[in-house]
Amino acid sequence: MTNCDVAIVGAGPAGSSAAIALARRGYDIVIVDKQQFPREKLCGDFINPINWPVFENLSVAERVLAQPHSEVSGFRMTAYSGEAAETSFKSAPQRRAIGLGLRRALLDQVLVERAAELGVSIRLGSRVEGLIKTERAWRVALGTEEILRAKLIIGADGRNSWIAQQLGMNTSSSTHGRSIGFQTRLRAPGAAQGKIEIHLFPGGYAGLVALGDGTVSLGLAVDRATLPRARIDDFLFTECLPQNPHLRIILSRSERVAELRSAYPVYFSRRRCYADGVVLAGDAAGVSEPISGEGVFFAMQSGLLAAETLDQALRSGEVAADYLRRYEQACARAFRRRFILNSLLRMAIYRPSLLTPLIRLSEKNSRILSSLVDRVCQPQAVG
After folding, report:
1. pLDDT (average), residues 244-254
2. Could you tell me how far CA 166 lies from the centroid of its own chain?
3. 77: buried, middle or exposed (CB in 10 Å: 19+, 13-18, 0-12)?
4. Helix (H) or strand (E) holding 373
5. Do residues 89 and 98 touch, judged by C-beta distance below 8 A?
6. Each residue's pLDDT tens digit, 183-195
7. Quick one: which of 75, 80, 116, 258 has the most CB atoms within 10 Å?
8. Cα–Cα distance between 240 and 243 in angstroms, integer?
């Protein structure tokens, strides 16, 4: 049996960030993930400028920049009626005005390596198969037949969190959603140079960002009601996406170099993220906003907030749900304004009657779009 202070299930940005923060406070941490790293992850692959203060907090900013990437200094949006508007990110000190096009597999590897460097025990390719609460600790059974004995648990195991399911933390709406996400990579010379691009089409949108390795990430969110029962791949690339004339030109000059992956749902309700001796972080807690490219930020910041709460719990010996509820309250305070803004963006993205006039106005007055982009991308201090 392996004893630890905190067992973290999931080695993505939320789990690794929590592990780094707790390890720096001197705790014994074990991270478990069912996948071997580096591993592909469905993601838009855009690193929003708001992430720089968090990267610096975790001491990984230079390591992130050392990975193959493209620099992103602006935003472009197009409508399927032909309108297009673009703006640059607001100027900020040094690198903080720049976003990145960076594969998630590389980012996640950087974070988990930083955690290991600080003494975190890493169990990759190891699935959690049992979870039992004893009087003073959790017994976590791994598929490798190892047993972890942990005082506290962080569930950072994604939108379909096994931890949340086992502990009854789902809500009736947690696993239902309107949109299905898809992601692939293209070799598309000249596409998305220096910009993150959002292209609207009937029933959804596509995001494009160059990755600095000669390829472009193409991420989609598509209303599932518009999808056929079969041959979805053909439908997307021959009927759906070409309805946007800007996308049609890009696709005509590109070739796919990766399989088309999917995930459902894209948007999902936030679930209760605390219980006796347990908190959820990142997608497992429902703190994800893909439309604005803030998902990595929400994941890492929620991991840091989870670490702060669990540090206080371990110091005080108070690990019951009533005490750990303060973590959910901390997330609500930290993310409230961004959640409201993203809710408005989600409402608009599927309503061309609302968004197309904004694009049309922004063609003539870039300050309109610039103000919105600044609110989404301007870095903020990390507490």
Report:
1. 96
2. 23
3. buried
4. helix 366-377
5. yes
6. 999 999 989 999 9
7. 75
8. 6
Q: Are 41 and 296 in contact (CB under 8 A)?
A: no
The amino acid occupying position 33 is: D
Contacts of 65 (CB under 8 A, 6+ apart): 95, 100
- pLDDT, tens digit, 9 for 90 and up, residues 129-174: 999 998 889 999 999 999 999 999 999 999 889 999 999 887 544 4
In the structure encoding, which two tokens stand for residue 245, read together?
């004339």
127 DSSP 8-state letter? -
Element (H, E) at 322: helix 321-349
Amino acid at 377: C
Residues pairing with 209 in the sheet:
217
By the 10 Å C-beta count (0-12 exposed, 13-18 middle, 19+ buried), 145 is classed as: exposed
For residue 220, the model assigns a pLDDT of 93
Cα separations in angstroms, 155 against 48, 131, 228, 262: 24, 12, 35, 22
CB contact at 8 A, 212 and 64: no
Cα→Cα distances 178→183, 269, 291, 346, Å: 17, 11, 14, 11
One-letter amino acid at 29 equals I
As a whole number of Å, the end-to-end CA separation of the chain is 36
* 47 closest CA partner among 24, 64, 27: 64
d(C-alpha 55, C-alpha 303), whole Å: 13
Q: Which of 173, 168, 172, 171 is nearest to 275 (CA)?
A: 168
* Partners of 100 in the β-ladder: 47, 71
Closest CA to 44 of 110, 114, 111, 99: 99
Q: Which of 251, 223, 221 is nearest to 237 (CA)?
A: 251
Q: For 185-247, give the DSSP string.
A: EEE-TTTTTTEEEEEEETTEEEEEEE-SSS-EEEEEEEEGGGS-SS-HHHHIIIIIGGGSHHH
Closest CA to 338 of 312, 370, 376, 300: 376
Instruction: Tell me which residue has tokens 């160059």.
Output: 210
Q: Is the peptide bond before 357 cis (omega within 30 degrees of 0)?
A: no
> The tokens 């959002």 sit on which residue?
198
- pTM for the whole thing? 0.92
Measured distance CA(302)–CA(157) in Å, rounded = 13
